[in-house]
Amino acid sequence: MKLEVITPDTTLFSGEVKLVQLPGLDGLFEILNNHAPMIAALGKGRIKYHEADGKDQFLEISGGVLEVINNKVLVLAG
């Protein structure tokens, strides 16, 4: 699935991933391939994503909004 993490200033990441773990307002949750469409608010914390080559990467965010649709995860981060 495709993950795109953007801020008002720049694109932090854009690429193919196997898994995304995000800091929701009520705790961590994960998105896998073929996830149902959803929109969620994000809290301050760390995004973890598992790249197609097997490496885990991390990004710090101060909050934001998530949209999942058609195997695309879009994070609008603050």
Structural features, described:
It is a single chain. With 78 residues, the protein is mostly beta strands. 0% of the residues lie in helices and 71% in strands. The protein has no helices and 8 strands. Strands 1, 2, 3, 4, 5, 6, 7 and 8 form an 8-stranded mixed beta sheet that branches. The radius of gyration is 11 Å and the shape is globular. The mean pLDDT is 96.
H and E string:
EEEEEEEE
The CATH architecture category equals Sandwich
Number of structurally distinct domains: 1
Radius of gyration: 11 Å
Total count of strands: 8
What keyword list fits this structure?
78 residues; ATP Synthase, domain 1; 71% strand; mainly beta; eight-stranded mixed β-sheet; single chain
Q: What's a quick, concise take on this entry?
A:
This protein has 78 residues and is an all-beta fold. 0% of the residues lie in helices and 71% in strands. It is globular.
Q: Would you spell out the secondary-structure blueprint of this structure?
A:
Layout: E1 2-6, E2 11-24, E3 27-32, E4 38-42, E5 45-51, E6 56-61, E7 64-69, E8 72-77
Parallel strand pairs: 1-8
Antiparallel strand pairs: 1-2, 2-3, 2-5, 4-7, 5-6, 7-8
